[in-house]
Amino acid sequence: MGLAFGILVGLVPKGNLLAVFLAAILAASRVNLGVAAGAIVCCSLASPLIDPISHVIGSWLLKHPGLSSFWTWLYNLPVAPWTGFNNSVVLGSFVVGLILLYPAHRLSRPVFEKYSEGAGKWIRRFWLTRALMGAEWAARVGVVE
Amino acid sequence: MRWSWLVPRLFLLAVIWTALAFGMDPLLRQTAIRVAESASGARVDINSFVTGIFPPSLSVGKVALASARSPGTNVVEFDQLECRIGGNALLRKSFVIEEAHVMGVRFGTVRNDDGQLDRQPDAASRKPSWITEKFRTGGDEWLEELILDVRQQLDPNTLETLRTGKILSVKWEQRMDSLREKLAAFKPRVDVLQDRLEKAKQLRSVTQVQAYLKLANEGESLLLEAERLQMQIQALLPEAGADLSLLDQARKNDQQQVVQRIRQLKPSPRKITESLIGPEVYRKLYQALTWLEFGAQYQKEIRRQTQVVRHRGENLEFDLLNPTPRFLCRRVEFSGELSIDQQLLPFHAVMSNLSSNPELSVQPTEFRLHTQGEKPLQLAIRHDATKEIPWTHVAAGFHQSQPCMLSAGEENTAVLNAALTNLHWTVGIQISGSDLNGTVSVVSDLDHAELTSKKMTPLLRDAVSDVFSSIDKVDATVQLDGSISAPNMQIESMFSEQLATGLRSVFAVQANQLKASLTNQLGHLATEQKQSLIKELRGRYQELVAEHKATLQKTQEAQQLLAKVKSGQATPQDLIRQVSGSGILGEKTDAKVQRQLDQTEKLLQGFGRRVFR
To answer: Please, what sign has the CA dihedral across residues B247, B252, B257, B258?
Structure first.
């Protein structure tokens, strides 16, 4: 689940309240933060590549006549303009991330079950990991939540 | 709860809080510096930048905005800015400054560094401003021009007498030269005739007679030409008389016109105004327009710099139930010190309704400023950008009780020194789009006017000084149009009209006094011209006549000799004697001929006695 959530947070452009909200939810959840952080970094670097797709999806949604009253209502809510939902890439990448959330979780689970124990041992060898995360917390890298 | 879950999340929270608490303000400070530097083109120093969330507020300390145009100085500097930001609007992503106070504002302060950015300023900023042009072409020369005008009107070179005298002198010189050339061309022909006569003597009797006949014809034509030349020389006398009459008429004309010319001397009121109060008015106007231009440019740059450039995606705006501009400053109060004529005056100013989207805020932006102290300044600027074409109206009133010293003219011609006291400036300028329209006027008292001149006659200088002394009020109005960067301006002044009229009156009064001296001067000049012409004519004429007389005599003698030969009246002895005594032959030849003649006579007499014995 950490990977799937990390992909969602990583795809959404930063510098808006939506990314902050998602990051806060991620931090508050019992997902694997290490995997999530790795996914965020990777997806943040790769997200400009899928911007054209995000833009098309976001624009379609924002310009859809049936949704205009909803967006207008949302836009008039306090704090909502800070989320940047009215930006086509922000909304599009958020939707893409949401769509990818379940498939990513389902597809990654068997892989983590198979390799997590070995990866956990390997990662515990690094002093930086132990220092930053603590020995017990670092041991949880291989545990799938 | 497991500690393993709680500890990393607490750690993350601590990191975020630390970043917000200690990182956001420095980040915002850096952003503000970057934006302001980009807008002004010079260094911007912000000492402290503190934001508050509950309630939303902003506190900025010690801000100095360097000047890009004059290194080492600040355009503006202030000690403290306190802002109260509207919370509701902020939740909807609008920055509404409900109230702000800017304290300790000072302009044109000195910096420790030059305040320049490393990048080169734009080429456009290096362009010479209109004020440089105005000061370069402007008018300290009016006094000099006035003196030159007077001098020109009284300059002998402009008088008809002198002009006519010069023309006649040249004309007669040419005439005399022409006649002399003709005479010079005539002489060789007489010489040739004499030579040929000499040669004819060597010939045998029949050929000799033929040669003499031919020479007699040529001699006749030479004599005719010589007589024609004489007639031409004689005709010079009546023509010279007519020319002298012309010269006399020119003198009379000059006497009539010279007084009228003095009366017509017109000093230009515009030049007088530009010279006396122009620099002060233009300087004030330049300051006002520079501030307006700076304000407009700064506003434009700030807007450009703060505009979010979205490289990713497109922002769609939806209708707001309570539309609010993205940035709105409802009221800002400024207090500080303003430097006016090297004096620092405390001032208080209020600006209201400064908005990034004036159409939404509906109300125009207003700025009102007033100073305290001896030189009160009142300024009101109203900027309305709610319409399609924005317009700005600037109104200002400024009273200056401290005297302002005036100095016009140049030392090597004439200098006018005076003091302006109780100056009252009124400014009314309207800017619509890029068009400028308005007036700047000044009224003041004129004291201690003093004129010094090395080139003016004492009489004229005193009279002009009297005119200045009689004026006690000075005024000027500049009519403006064009654009802020290149305004067209026309300066007018009742004072200058009054001054010009006064100067004209002085010249009119002085005209009668000058008339007498000018008449004498003219009479003297005309006599001089006439005598010079007569002397020259007489000398040349006599020289010409003498030369012609000698040539004519030679021609006539040759002609007489030949005439006798042609008529057969002369015996060979007579002919020889005639030729010998005529001066046609040279001295030696003449003696030789005489000897030969005597011997021939003796021989003939002896031969006759022997024959008739």
So the answer is: positive
Same-domain pairing of B35 and B102: yes
Domain boundary among B64, B91, B120: B120
* Residues of chain B positioned with their CB less than 8 A from the CB of A88: 313-316
Q: Pick the residue from chain A with its C-alpha nearest to B5.
A: A30
Q: Kindly state whether residue B239 falls inside one of the protein's structural domains.
A: yes
**Residue B77 and residue B64 in contact, taking contact as beta carbons nearer than 8 Å:** yes
Distance to chain A for B20, nearest Cα, Å: 13
Q: Which domain holds residue A108?
A: 2-115
Q: Span B219-231, mean pLDDT?
A: 78
Yes or no, beta carbons of B313 and A140 under 8 Å apart: no
3-state helix, strand, coil in chain A (%, to 5): 85, 0, 15
- A134 inside domain: no
Instruction: Give the Cα separation of A46 and B149 in Å (integer).
Output: 84
Residue B277 is assigned to a structural domain of this protein: no
Phi and psi at residue B337, in whole multiples of 5°?
Answer: -125, 140
Angstroms from B57 CA to nearest CA on chain A: 18
Interface of B with A (CB under 8 A): 4-5, 7-9, 12-13, 88, 91-93, 310, 312-321
**H or E segment at B590?**
helix B587-612
Residue in B92, B316, B319 closest to A78 by CB: B92
Place of tokens 């003091």: B419
Residue A62: which pLDDT band, with cuts at 50, 70 and 90? very high
Smallest CA-to-CA distance from B502 within B529, B475, B467 is with B467
Whether A138 is covered by a domain: the verdict is: no
B2 and B112 housed in the same domain: yes
CA distance B81 to B332: 10
Tell me: do B21 and B89 sit in the same domain: yes
Q: Contact A134/B312, CB-based, under 8 Å?
A: no
**pLDDT digit string (tens) for B238-262?**
887 888 788 788 877 877 776 666 6
Q: What pLDDT, on the 0 to 100 scale, is given for residue B488?
A: 83
Residue in chain B nearest A26 by alpha carbon: B9
Inter-chain contact A87–B313, Cβ cutoff 8 Å?
yes
Torsion angle of C-alpha atoms B288, B289, B294, B299, degrees rounded to 10: 100
The total number of structural domains that make up chain B? 3
Question: Do B578 and B559 belong together in one domain?
Answer: no
- Give Cβ neighbours of residue B112 (< 8 Å, ≥ 6 apart): none
Residues whose CB is less than 8 angstroms from the CB of residue B550 and which lie 6 or more positions away in sequence, other chains included: none
A130 within a domain of the structure (yes/no): no
Asked whether residue A144 is assigned to any structural domain, the reply reads no
- From chain B, the residues in CB contact with A78 under 8 A are 88, 91-92
Write out pLDDT tens, residues B273-320: 777 777 777 777 777 777 777 777 766 766 666 666 556 788 888 888
Please give the torsion angle defined by the CA atoms of residues A135, A136, A138 and A140, in that order, rounded to the nearest 10 degrees.
Answer: 160
Task: Say whether both B113 and B10 belong to one domain.
Answer: yes
> Helices B205-263 and B160-201, interaxial angle, to 10°?
180
Residue B151 lies in a domain: no
Residues B601 and B561 in one domain: no
Domain carrying residue B600: 571-613
